[in-house]
Amino acid sequence: MERNHLPRHVALQRQSLFDQGFLDEQFIQLEELQDDANPNFVEEVVTSYYQNTSTLIVIIEQALERSPLDFNILDGYMYQFKGSSSSFGAKKVKAQCTLFSEYCKAKNEEGCMRTFQQLKKEYASLKRKLEAYFQLARQAGLTGTASRPK
Questions:
Q1: Looking at the predicted structure, is the pLDDT value of residue 50 above 60?
Q2: CA distance 61 to 52
Q3: CA within 13 Å, CB half, 76
Q4: At what angle do helices 25-33 and 41-65 cross, to 10 degrees?
Q5: Whether 77 contacts 56, CB under 8 Å
Q6: What is the pTM of this model?
Q7: What is the pLDDT of residues 51-69, one digit of tens each?
Q8: pLDDT band per the 50, 70, 90 thresholds, residue 146
Q9: Do residues 69 and 112 lie in contact, with contact meaning Cβ atoms separated by under 8 Å?
């Protein structure tokens, strides 16, 4: 890919994250905090998110293996997960967290299991897409890409 086309590809890839519902306005607010003093701020926040939440996923998986399920504990873990996901605008992941919490409140074991599997898929998909986006942005030498999605 020619270097002079990279900024356009970065912009299109970023826009697709919004168009496909992976990200929300919170991501833009995070981008607005990025500056020349910390040009990789957003990527660092996202990397930290994935490091912290990967541990939380293991904890939730272990809690889902216990019988009987402790829905209050599960809901507490999911509350943490949702907060972390909301902090950078992980829209689809956050939606699955909300659904999981609703199933916890209803004490619906099957709903929790099914939703957690979907949450993990959304989580992994977003991770792949963001890794590709950040890699392309680095290749293009772009920083501070904050702008409102169309």
A1: yes
A2: 15
A3: 7
A4: 130
A5: yes
A6: 0.88
A7: 999 999 999 999 999 999 9
A8: very low
A9: yes
Q: From CA 68, how far away is CA 110, in angstroms rounded?
A: 13
The CA-to-CA distance between both ends of the chain, in Å, stands at: 25
**DSSP 8-state secondary structure symbol assigned to residue 90:** B
Residue 90 CA to residue 21 CA, distance in Å, equals 9
The dihedral sign for the CA sequence 136, 25, 61, 117: negative
- Contact 134/46 with Cβ under 8 angstroms? yes
Beta strands in 1-133 (DSSP E): none
**What pLDDT is attached to residue 142?**
62
User: What does the radius of gyration of the chain's CA atoms come to, in whole angstroms?
Assistant: 17
CA atoms of 77 and 10, how far apart (whole Å) = 34
Cβ-proximal residues to 40 (8 Å cutoff; 6+ apart), any chain? 34, 143
Q: Are 17 and 23 in contact (CB under 8 A)?
A: yes
Q: What are phi and psi of 38, to 5 degrees?
A: -140, 75
